[in-house]
Specification:
This is Nucleotide-binding universal stress UspA family protein. InterPro entries: Rossmann-like_a/b/a_fold, Universal_stress_UspA, UspA. Belongs to the universal stress protein A family. Pfam families: Usp. This protein is α/β, with parallel strands linked by helices. It folds into two domains: 132 residues, Rossmann fold (3-Layer(aba) Sandwich); 137 residues, Rossmann fold, CATH 3.40.50. The protein is built from eight helices and ten strands. A ten-stranded mixed β-sheet has the order 3-2-1-4-5-10-9-6-7-8, sandwiched between helices. Strand 4, helix 4 and strand 5 form a beta-alpha-beta unit. The longest helix has 24 residues. The chain is elongated, with a radius of gyration of 21 Å.
Length: 285
Amino acid sequence: MTESPSRIVVGYDGSSGADAALTWAAQEAANGSDAPAELRVVLVGTAMDPVLSGYRHVMDRAVEDWRAGLSERLAALGRADATVEVRHGTVVPELLAAAEKASLLVVGSAGHGLATGTWTGSVSQHLARHAACPVVVVRPRHSTVVDRIVVGVDDSPASAKALRFACERARRTGEEVSAVHGYFSALAHVLTFDGAESEVADRRRAAAEQLVKDLCRECAAEFPDVEIEPEAIPVRAGQVLVDASRAASLVVVGSRGRDAFSEMLLGSVSQHVLGHAQCPVAIVR
């Protein structure tokens, strides 16, 4: 088995979402390794600002309350050795700085949302766009009994990295990997006059199936002990992955695929999955 990530950073704000992220990160740190990864929990309070001095006092008290409760929580997770760090500033820049040398950054899908400097659902979007390491956004799982990692694939470099990330994790956890390529074209619904599928649609389907098979074959050579299942489905990629997330422990996507014309740093598929998946989501750059 490969070693688990050397350092996992968790953003924490005392919310139920942050607690779910902490639990996931503690489990991930121990996966497949005799020596658990370093776990660092980061709490972010407000920056110093005379105008907001009253608010800062309230926020600092909340941060101390979160910190006080962490010791017991970390002990219950078997990670009393975790580092707890309090930083002051705006959440996204501070977490990005804390995760500069991390192997993984883990956050909840939403938190308290207490004005600037604290958590909102958009925090995960910003982190996924800019973090130097993979980001895992821990969303509630629809099913807790499945052992399957779903990874979205296309012909982009980010997709290849996402598939490799999924296989590396599967090798540690013993899960299977479903490499899913969602494709959609209006041509797939065009029929000829005799009711047969058009030749163009047939070629599109064959190309999609070949693409995902080739990607899986390459990864299978590197990860022979991981079961990788190729799937090509004629539905928009974002919807395919959200549907697949109902029976997955994790969905992995690249930060930007071939159709990411609407976002410079985070593709539209990744955004859709982050907002709607029914299990944790990993964004790989």
